[in-house]
Specification:
Layout lengths: L3 H25 L5 H6 L3 E2 L4 H6 L6 E2 L4 H19 L6 H8 L6 H26 L2 H14 L23 H13 L4 H10 L2 H8 L3 E3 L3 E4 L13 E3 H34 L4 E8 L5 E10 L4 E4 L3
Antiparallel strand pairs: 1-2, 3-4, 4-5, 6-7, 7-8
């Protein structure tokens, strides 16, 4: 369940941090259209190489909705439905006071705890939907680079199997070392938020259904004494509430951030015949660089790649 007062408390901290992220990206991006590329999922696509051979005006590059973007839209509906339907009508303090009453009937207590367990199971699913999502990881990875004045990475790729040879990293490696770590100096609030909410052991425990509930405690069955990253034995429900609320606010601000990106570039496009220049870089084609244009469509409030 969600507690509005906790959401608002975390929002007060993270909202300015995302404003700072936006300004850093705008100021430090190598090309003025790089942030639009993040929003529009610009990436090298090896599957299009044959098209390039047959058509010299083509480029092995994808821009626009991809499979992982459609996936993100699907999961967004689920997350939004949970947010709309599971907001608690009382504060967390009031809820805890209620279940800790000494005169509460046993059946009522069991019913409250059971509903709490069910909501946590849904929240665990949402936790994975957010932290495992390719689009979420890719966009934050690119934002972390642009905020630090580093080239947009058209060849970003998440490792999907042990046989992969060319990849950026595994999901947890990218989140910890190529997003969170990149925020540490310039955006310490975002760094701490990622550190507080993304827990590899908890993610693994949820993904493998390797946990249990006992007396409002989550027992993590992947606990290994003395092994770094597996040293968490139990998690009180109250601690889970902190982790999940931080994750939810991060996700909410992420959604709002890219709505802001769309508004930012649409306003610029209106003064430039609805056109925005973008720069496409190809590391494996003799570092080839192409300047193309995105066309803003006012009726749809979106962008598409312009073809001559």
């Amino acid at each position: 369940m969600l507690f509005e007062e906790k959401i608002l408390e975390i929002e007060k901290l993270l909202n300015p941090a995302f404003d700072n992220l936006f300004q850093l990206v705008i100021n430090n991006q190598i090309h003025a259209g790089d942030l639009l590329l993040v929003y529009e999922n610009g990436s090298y696509n090896s599957n299009l190489e044959n098209d390039v051979i047959s058509n010299e005006n083509s480029l092995p590059y994808s821009i626009g909705p991809t499979k992982d973007v459609f996936s993100e839209c699907t999961h967004f509906k689920f997350i939004e439905a949970y947010r709309d339907n599971y907001m608690c009508k009382i504060t967390q303090v009031e809820y805890l006071s209620k279940i800790q009453e000494t005169n509460i009937e046993k059946d009522e207590l069991n019913s409250l705890v059971f509903r709490e367990e069910l909501s946590i199971q849904l929240e665990m699913l949402i936790y994975l939907k957010i932290w495992e999502a390719d689009s979420f990881i890719r966009k934050f990875y690119q934002l972390a680079r642009l905020a630090n004045g580093i080239e947009y990475d058209s060849h970003f790729r998440i490792a999907v199997s042990d046989r992969d040879k060319e990849f950026t990293g595994t999901r947890q490696e990218i989140i910890r070392n190529k997003i969170r770590k990149m925020f540490k100096d310039k955006l310490p609030i975002l760094y701490n938020s990622f550190k507080n909410s993304y827990k590899t052991q908890i993610r693994n425990s949820i993904a493998h259904s390797n946990y249990s509930f006992v007396n409002r405690i989550i027992c993590l069955n992947n606990y290994i004494k003395g092994v770094k990253g597996s040293e968490l034995k139990i998690l009180k429900f109250e601690n889970w509430v902190d982790i999940f609320h931080e994750t939810m606010v991060l996700y909410n601000e992420y959604v709002k951030f890219f709505n802001k990106v769309n508004s930012y570039y649409s306003e610029i496009a209106k003064d430039k015949n609805n056109l925005i220049d973008i720069r496409l870089c190809f590391q494996n084609i003799e570092n080839k660089i192409e300047i193309r244009q995105m066309e803003y469509r006012p009726d749809w409030d979106d962008f598409k790649l312009k073809f001559d």
